[in-house]
């Protein structure tokens, strides 16, 4: 039931607001990276540290690391004040969290994500091979992002409202196929709960408590499933 739960809390509300309040995309123009190597190194180090910390803690995900990175400093959001650095930090946090997920799988047999659970169903290759593949993927992703940034003006032509409607229908159909009527019921309730943060002007991060609290209680032996 994670599909309708998480889709409702974090996906459907965003899509509904995008449909009802669809605006125009700011014209895109490539003018280089817009940042220097010092900021790249500092933001990457900060994101890597945050991703590594949450990578070992039960119930925590890269979303928590991203929230830590967006904490206000002197009344200014890191995301709003330094958007380039924020993007670098969150990308580094997601990459570090993924690599730590591989390490946790090999070290203690703990599967921290669906991809790790799928990987565990096969014969695991050598860990150094896995880490090399993860590093190569991260490096490729960086250069691919820089290369594709030159095509930003093409993405700006996409009908944002139509795309949001298509994704919304896809999520509903997917939930109906895999989770049935009860899954649709969960999707509706979670979507209603997910609308609250946007209406109150607070972060959706607190919705992660729906996973964090049960996982932490289970880890501590207080709750059993």
What does this structure look like?
It is globular, with a radius of gyration of 19 Å. The two termini are 14 Å apart. Helix content is 72%, strand content 0%. The chain contains ten helices and no strands. Helix 2 (37-55) crosses helix 3, helix 3 (62-69) runs antiparallel to helix 5 (83-108) and helix 5 runs antiparallel to helix 7 (127-148). The chain has two domains: 1-25 and 159-225, no CATH class; 28-155, no CATH class. With 225 residues, the protein is mostly helical. The mean pLDDT is 79.
Which descriptors would you attach to this protein?
225 residues; mainly alpha
DSSP helical segment count: 10
Strand % is under 5%
Helix share bin: over 70%
- Radius of gyration equals 19 Å
How many beta-strand segments? 0
Q: Could you tell me the mean pLDDT?
A: 79
């Amino acid at each position: 039931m994670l599909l309708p739960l998480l889709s409702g809390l974090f996906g459907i509300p965003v899509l509904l607001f995008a449909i009802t309040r669809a605006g125009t995309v700011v014209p895109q123009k490539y003018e280089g990276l817009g940042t220097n190597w010092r900021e790249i190194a500092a933001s990457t180090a900060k994101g890597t540290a945050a991703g590594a910390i949450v990578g070992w803690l039960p119930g925590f995900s890269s979303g928590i690391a991203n929230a830590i990175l967006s904490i206000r400093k002197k009344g200014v959001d890191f995301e709003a004040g330094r958007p380039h650095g924020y993007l670098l930090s969150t990308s580094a946090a997601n990459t570090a969290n993924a690599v730590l997920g591989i390490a946790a799988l090999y070290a203690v047999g703990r599967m921290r994500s669906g991809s790790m659970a799928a990987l565990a169903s096969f014969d695991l290759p050598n860990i150094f091979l896995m880490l090399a593949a993860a590093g190569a993927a991260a490096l490729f992703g960086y250069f691919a992002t820089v290369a594709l940034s030159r095509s930003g003006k093409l993405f700006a032509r996409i009908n944002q409202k139509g795309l949001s409607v298509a994704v919304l229908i896809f999520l509903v159909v997917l939930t109906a196929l895999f989770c049935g009527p009860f899954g649709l019921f969960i999707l509706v309730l979670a979507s209603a709960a997910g609308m609250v943060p946007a209406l109150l002007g607070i972060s959706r991060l607190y919705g992660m408590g729906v996973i964090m609290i049960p996982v932490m209680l289970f880890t501590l032996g207080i709750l059993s499933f």
